[in-house]
Amino acid sequence: VRRLRGKSDPIDAEAAARAVLAGEAHDTPKADTEEVGMIRVLRVARRSALKARTQATNQMRGILVCAPAPLREELRTLSLAKLILRAAAFRPGPVTTPTAANKLALRSLAIRCQALSDEIAALDIELQRLTVVAAPALCQLKGVGPDVAGALLVAAGDNPDRLRSEAAFASLCGASPVPASSGKTIRHRLNRGGDRIANNALWWIVMSRLACD
User: Fold this and answer.
1) Which residue ranges does the record assign to the Transposase IS116/IS110/IS902 C-terminal domain (predicted)?
2) How far is the C-alpha of 153 from the C-alpha of 6, rounded, in Å?
């Protein structure tokens, strides 16, 4: 049961419980089984791998800042992809100098980045297959790729019919305007609630269509 009028978690929880006891709650819980459940867990693994790869690349850039000048000058103009390839091929030998230590650290991080990229690519293949099976019509829409489709499918669950209208789905994704009128001034503000990952997916669809139309 979703309650949106509270000011804190305890108040929201109490309001939801009272609604259930009074028979006023009619929401159907989201189901998370079969394809959508598989998409959800694979997205968790993919998000973790992306975060780890970003952390590793940032660490490589950080090491370069303080690396010995000859090594820094050798690598500083390389793109990230070329830096990873170059660093992964390092053979630092015995770690007896600052340069050797920096090369070993960069090599370790570069190999980690490559492994994570392979992991992400493998997960992307499975996610693309599952999203097409779960929602072929959604995947045909302009601006909707496997990542965007997966985010929307996870938000809706395996029983999207529980969302009674487009307005209900917009509210779930935090894309519905919130009344913020005062006196005779009628206005609305952005909705800061809802599923922010699904909200980001909608944003990507809009940006993609604006760029292509």
Assistant:
1) 137-211
2) 27
Q: Are residues 26 and 74 in the same domain?
A: no
Domain for residue 196, yes or no? no
* Structural domain total, the chain: 2
pTM of the model: 0.75
The tokens describing 79, both together, are 């793109």
pLDDT tens readout for residues 153-199:
998 886 667 777 888 888 888 888 887 788 888 888 878 878 889 99
Element (H, E) at 110: helix 98-134
24 phi/psi in degrees, rounded to 5: -95, -10
Distance CA 18, CA 14 (A): 6
Residue 154, in any domain of the structure: no
Cα 47 to chain centroid, rounded: 6
Compute the half-sphere exposure of residue 208: CA atoms within 13 Å on the CB side of its CA: 12
Element holding 189 (H helix, E strand): strand 188-189
CA dihedral 159→164→170→172, nearest 10 degrees, is -50
Q: What is the three-class DSSP state of 144?
A: coil
Chain position carrying tokens 């980001």: 200
Tell me the DSSP string of 190-202: ----S-HHHHHHH
Q: In this structure, which amino acid lies at residue 4?
A: L
Question: Domain range holding 24?
Answer: 1-30
Tokens representing 117 are: 């990229």
Q: What is the DSSP letter of 160?
A: G
Task: Let me know whether 37 and 21 are in one domain.
Answer: no
DSSP 188: E
